[in-house]
Design goal:
The protein has about 90 residues and is mainly alpha-helical. It has three helices and no strands.
Length: about 90
């Protein structure tokens, strides 16, 4: 007799095309994002964020860290070149 649960359980074949397409956000995640963006718009949008940057820099920088890309590269995936302009 084969076990009904656990790692020794036989695997079922996945039906092609079943499930969410790769890159499609979870419905709940998308709805939550829309709610947050709506609340930001109601609070004043960019002006509100600018105020928070001054009054609560720790929380604001935490938010900035979450929305910036995790890896920054230069042109065509090469190294990032920083130039200071006079």
């Amino acid at each position: 007799m084969q076990p009904k649960v656990g790692p020794d359980r036989p695997k079922r074949a996945k039906t092609p095309g079943s499930g969410r397409a790769r890159g499609t956000p979870n419905r709940v995640t998308a709805e939550l994002k829309d709610l947050i963006l709506g609340a930001l718009d109601d609070a004043g949008g960019q002006a509100y964020l600018a105020t928070q940057a001054k009054e609560n820099p720790g929380a604001f920088l935490s938010l900035v860290g979450k929305v910036l890309p995790l890896k920054v590269t230069g042109k065509d995936g090469g190294p990032l070149v920083v130039q200071w302009l006079p």
